[in-house]
Amino acid sequence: MVTSRERIKKLLAFQEPDRIGRFDAFWEDTLTRWISEGLPPDIAPADYFAFDIEPIFLDASLRLPEKLLEETDEYTVREDKLGYTVKQWKGKAGALGYLDHVIKTREDWERHKHRLAVDFGGASRIHTVSYFTPFVAYPTWAEMGATFERLIAKERYLLLHVYGPFEATWRKHGFETTLMNLVLEPELIAAMCEAHIDVTIGTLERAREYGIVPDGLFMVEDLGMNTGLLFSPNAYERIFFPAHRRLGDYLRRHGITYFIHTDGDMRRLIPRLIAAGVQVLQPLEAKSNLDVRLLKRAYGTDLAFFGNIDVRRMAGTPAALEEEVRSKLEIAMRGGGYIYHSDHSVPPTVSLENYRYLMTLLDRYGAY
Predict the structure, then answer these.
(1) What is the C-alpha separation between 64 and 69, in angstroms, rounded?
(2) E strands, 120-277, where?
């Protein structure tokens, strides 16, 4: 019997195992709805739906002190270790309300950049809990090494998540400010990006000393919006491509597969992402006009694909959902190189009944 880890590895090597792999992400209020509809609250969704990937997380933050500034029945306001102050609604999906960012000037950067040392704060920078989750105590390296051994025994594909340099930079510098400073202060943005890659690679090196070697690295790096790129291809080439490629070179040397998560329509950058070493593209937002059928024909075995099943179809009729799955899988899965995922996180408009039906469609159309 093929294990989940073996299945994903075969697919990413453009081979055909028993079936396509599967993994997904859910908004918090989606799971709240599903529990009310019968999802067992004491079983992790990854176990309930038999997913093939086990996520772990690399904290490449400044490790700033986290503070709860305000709390009501509806929301919290807090200072995050990543370098922002944020308003977050309780029990609801959607974007956070960013109120402030700690790095406003080059002087701020010079004063804080030492916090990106691998050992700053003493604890491991790797955890089973997302770096996005606040007020979490991190394990020691030895403790995380022992946890990693237990994860290996689950025989899932171990995928280490980390922010990319653009994401990490704007979260401490501000989104609009970062975009403006691609033109006004490009050297500052480049310096923050390179420091982020330094701590990412440094953490991977330290992790190896404790036997923590993931199968893949999943870089969260939104580069687009529905209508196109967030910045020009020239800005990408000057600022972000060198950082992406340096990480890609490291991962290739150590046999770690390079995934990128990027929302929006970023098709103009795909050739450069491949040149940087990226091997897997996710989530392929359908509402941003990405279509895995066309991408598969265009890139063949140069790039594997992870996603593109439209969440709008998941909330629609069974017939529409079946057509979405059947028509995309029959092209995307040929010759390997495809893993199921929604085209973003599954929203609360999708019922548990519809999602269970989706899983049966994956069984039907996703088998080799």
Answers:
(1) 14
(2) 126-127, 157-163, 216-220, 224-225, 228-229, 257-261
Name the residue range of residue 128's domain: 4-63+103-366
DSSP string, 211-275: T---SEEEEE---EETTEESS-HHHIIIIIHHHHHHHHHHHHHTT-EEEEE--S--GGGHHHHHH
Residue 70 lies in a domain: no
Name residue 346's beta-bridge partners. 26
Q: What is the mean pLDDT of residues 140-163?
A: 98
Q: Does the structure show a pLDDT above 90 at 93?
A: no
Task: Identify the band that residue 94 occupies on the pLDDT scale cut at 50, 70 and 90.
Answer: low
| Domain annotation covers residue 84 | no
In a domain, 140, yes or no: yes
What total number of domains does the chain contain? 1
CA dist 213 and 217 (Å) reads: 10
* Number of neighbouring beta carbons within 10 Å of residue 255: 8
- Tell me the CATH number at 234: 3.20.20.210
Please tell me the distance from the alpha carbon of residue 238 to that of residue 184, in angstroms, as a whole number: 14
Question: Taking the complete model, does pTM exceed 0.90, yes or no?
Answer: yes
Dist. CA 5–CA 154, nearest whole Å: 9
Question: Is residue 80, in this structure, part of any structural domain at all?
Answer: no
Do 261 and 55 form a contact (C-beta atoms < 8 A)? no
Average pLDDT, the chain: 97
